[in-house]
Specification:
The protein is α+β, with helices and mostly antiparallel strands. The protein has one domain (5-151): Peptide methionine sulphoxide reductase MsrA (Peptide Methionine Sulfoxide Reductase, Chain A), CATH 3.30.1060.10. Helices cover 26% and strands 23% of the residues. The chain contains 5 helices and 8 strands. Helix 3 (69-79) packs across helix 4. The chain is globular. The chain starts with a strand and ends in a 19-residue tail after the last helix.
Length: 170
């Protein structure tokens, strides 16, 4: 197989973010789960307590020949509010924080550049508070949470794509 890459993003409820990312050209697979906490093999019910340190996270597997990491990160900043610590819509708590779990220094550098560009664009009107955290582990959520909006089209989501000009360059 090609040189596929993975990206781990937390931006509130993972159902809505997954639904938007799974349709993007170059994205080959998505999976919702949990990252950033201190409990191994964590489950949804535990994460909802807000005591595990985990954030609801989307794993994005993509082909870098078809879509760049930079482009995916700009889209991330269009589909969730990166200026609210620990909140997206009605969802409040550290499990809904905005975070990028970088896998190596190259991903971290691109994320820092994208955050600087998004901040400079002024589109959000407030500074980005997205946390950059070194990737440690990803624990997939239960099957009923995977592709949730596809299973339940009227299900709750607080995510949508904004037509922001974030100043990115191709």
């Amino acid at each position: 197989m090609k040189n596929l890459q993975k990206l781990y993003l937390a931006g509130g409820c993972y159902w809505g973010i997954e639904e938007l990312f799974r349709h993007m050209p170059g994205v080959l697979a998505t999976q919702v789960g949990f990252s950033g906490g201190h409990i191994a093999n964590v489950a949804y019910r535990e994460v909802t307590t807000g005591t595990t340190g985990h954030a609801e996270t989307l794993m994005v597997e993509f082909d870098p020949d078809l879509v760049t990491l930079k482009h995916l990160l700009f889209e991330f900043f269009r589909v969730h509010n990166p200026t609210k610590p620990n909140q997206q819509g009605n969802d409040i708590g550290t499990q809904y924080r905005s975070a990028i779990f970088y896998q190596d220094e190259a991903q971290k550098t691109v994320a820092e550049q994208v955050i600087a560009t998004v901040n400079a664009s002024g589109q959000w009107g407030m500074p980005v508070v997205t946390q950059l955290e070194a990737f440690q582990a990803f624990y997939p959520a239960e099957d009923k949470h995977q592709k949730y909006i596809m299973q339940f089209p009227d299900g709750y989501t607080c995510h949508h794509r904004r037509n922001f000009d974030l100043g990115e360059t191709p």
